[in-house]
């Protein structure tokens, strides 16, 4: 039989990225959390954590995390069905991985009504759209919004639509680097802006224009900071239409090469046995995402 106090300790260490914060969340001493992890490892006969900074689960640790994520959601269903087991005043918390651009644009509008109606709290983990699924594979989150279609074992994926991006820069940047008009061969010699080392959107854009070589670029791991750097004339970059609509209307940003959008698909991944709450959230996103995303 599972000892869920031990599994809760494992989940807290991973979710809080360390033993100290896990102890604070669980209301235990750091030593007590460490002892629970050691006891869990003794029972399964192998390590459940790689004690790095932050700690990461081993393969068996990932399997246990996947299990405890689903159990938490199923417990909510039982509590609703058996009111005597319910704990009033303690709303459910959903831990979800999603890309920064969705968080900066449409996500809050989409899930705000659902959060209020269902009294659910969101614990959001921001990852690039190409790598967010790794969090779900690691058992760290109950659901994931990313660009990968193929679900992990035990999960389903749902195509919500696509975010449309446009390659933008400030008028001053264009005047400085393309005074005679846009020239493709000059683009790789002008600085770009990339969200992070896992962000290959700008690279794919260049490849779509026939440019396979690398390019000079800043790294800016902030959706809002990304746009501010574009407005300051520091480089060119791909921005969601949803995020840059005001700058495009005002002329603060312009498209570097007219009518060359990039559509990035977004898939919602959720556990098959994730309980009614995940099912309801999935159905809510199915109905509403098209208000902000383009068909895919």
From TrEMBL:
Residues 2-58 form the HTH lysR-type domain. The keyword Transcription applies. Gene3D superfamilies: 3.40.190.290, Winged helix-like DNA-binding domain superfamily/Winged helix DNA-binding domain. It holds the Pfam family HTH_1. Belongs to the LysR transcriptional regulatory family. NCBIfam families: argP (TIGR03298), PRK03635.1 (NF002964), PRK13348.1 (NF009888). This is LysR family transcriptional regulator.
């Amino acid at each position: 039989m599972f000892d869920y106090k031990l599994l809760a300790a494992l989940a807290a260490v991973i979710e809080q990225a360390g033993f100290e914060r896990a102890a604070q969340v669980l209301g235990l001493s750091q030593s007590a959390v460490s002892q629970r992890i050691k006891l869990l490892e003794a029972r399964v006969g192998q390590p459940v954590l790689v004690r790095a900074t932050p700690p990461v689960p081993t393969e068996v640790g990932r399997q246990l995390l996947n299990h405890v994520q689903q159990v938490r959601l199923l417990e909510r269903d039982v509590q609703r069905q058996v009111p005597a087991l319910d704990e009033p005043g303690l709303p459910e918390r959903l831990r979800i991985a999603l890309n920064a651009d969705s968080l900066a644009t449409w996500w809050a509008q989409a899930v705000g009504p659902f959060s209020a109606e269902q009294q659910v709290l969101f614990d959001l983990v921001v990852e690039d759209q190409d790598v967010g699924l790794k969090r779900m594979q690691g058992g760290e989150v109950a659901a994931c919004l990313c660009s990968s279609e193929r679900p992990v074992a035990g999960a389903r994926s749902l195509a919500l639509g696509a975010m449309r991006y446009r390659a933008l820069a400030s008028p001053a940047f264009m005047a400085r680097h393309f005074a005679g008009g846009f020239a493709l061969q000059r683009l790789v010699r002008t600085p770009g802006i990339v969200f992070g080392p896992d962000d290959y959107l700008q690279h794919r854009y260049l490849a779509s224009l026939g440019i396979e070589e690398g390019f000079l670029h800043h790294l800016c791991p902030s959706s809002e900071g990304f746009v501010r750097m574009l407005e300051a004339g520091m480089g060119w970059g791909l921005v969601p239409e949803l995020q840059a609509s005001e700058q495009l209307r005002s002329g603060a940003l312009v498209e570097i090469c007219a009518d060359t959008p990039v559509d990035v698909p977004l898939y919602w991944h959720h556990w098959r046995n994730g309980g009614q709450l995940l099912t309801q959230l999935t159905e809510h996103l199915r109905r509403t995402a098209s208000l902000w995303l383009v068909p895919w």
